[in-house]
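Troubleshooting log. The previous structure file for this entry was overwritten by mistake, so regenerating from the original sequence record. Sequence copied from the archived sheet and checked twice against the printout by T.R.
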Amino acid sequence: MAHEYKSGTDSTVGENIITFDMKREALIDLEDEQYLLKLSDSIYQPKHFGKTIKRHHYLPLLDDRNINDQGLDANGAVIADGNLWGSSKDIGKITSSLPLGSELGSARNRVGYKRITVEGTLKRFDFFDEYTKESVDFDDDSELRTHITREALRGALAVSESVLQIDLLNSAGVIRYGGSATTRATVSGDTAGVPSILSYEGLMKASIQLDDNKCPKHTKIFKGSKNTDTMTLQATRMLFIGSELKPTIKRMKDLHNNQAFIPSSKYADGSTLMNGEIGVVDEFKIIVHPNMLHWSGAGAPEGTNGGYRATGGNYDVYPALCVGSDSFTTLGFQVRDGNSKFDITNKPPSKDNANRLDPHGDMGFYAIKWYYDTLIWRPEWIFRYEVVAEL
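Regenerated output below.
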């Protein structure tokens, strides 16, 4: 349905609060700040190369994934994997696999290398808005179209942020469940069992696994509008949670029964904090994402509820998400103005746009289109912790 001015008091844009001439300023909602999108730079697909983007990822020599048939051990015998001892930390295996040389040379200690191909396919997103000339000419806000145009762009960014969050949650290579749960369907807040809550011990064990996976603790944040300005956060990894998990985080105790949560006011000033950063637990900076998603009613049957959120008789499942630096990138498509993510068309009402269906040119529209997807480089650097949230 198009926007209409109607009688002047019931415009489809919203009620007019000013029907007389006066100076005023419109109250504008602050733009939702980006969170996950700031963690990634972008790869752009040029024209005429299809919608699928493929990239090679070369595996390290000392990695269990580097499986190849080119290996020769120190005695010249063929070995199954040409990666020496792979990812093993066993002293015995490392000692027996050391690439010791010989004065006589000969074919020994041959290794091989492996690469994997990662790919993503661009998906098209778009929406549009219609409006009449009178809805602009007679509205009490002379900047109406400017405001609506801005909100359209914010909406497109919000869509991209949500899609990225879903991609990252689904791509996590390190997954834990709270309490005694072993799957999402068994996440529970029932008093009869061990509640599936976010715990210090669970975070500590996840951090150890991420360390073993060589996930970096420094994090790059892209600040510029075209991802040209970056900032690096050191020493810890970022853990994104919804506001529903704040009570659990703030009352968390460490292994010595001391407060585990250290508020950001204790270690940083406002200029060194990331959007939403409230503190640190163990080796994770805690970032409250205001639009963090969850799975409604996807947990265990409610039973005797110990004070946790549920929907339709089953517990809601809330994720805590850690994304290691350089574990993913976003995909875009180069449009008219170079590296812009969005292709915007605005045709205001005018006689030049008149046609037989709109002979006076009274109708206009604003349309936005973009292509987007996520390319996951290192799923083993992405961690998802599924838990219940307090009421």
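Helices lie at 91-96, 133-137, 144-171, 200-212, 246-250. Archived copy saved in two places this time.
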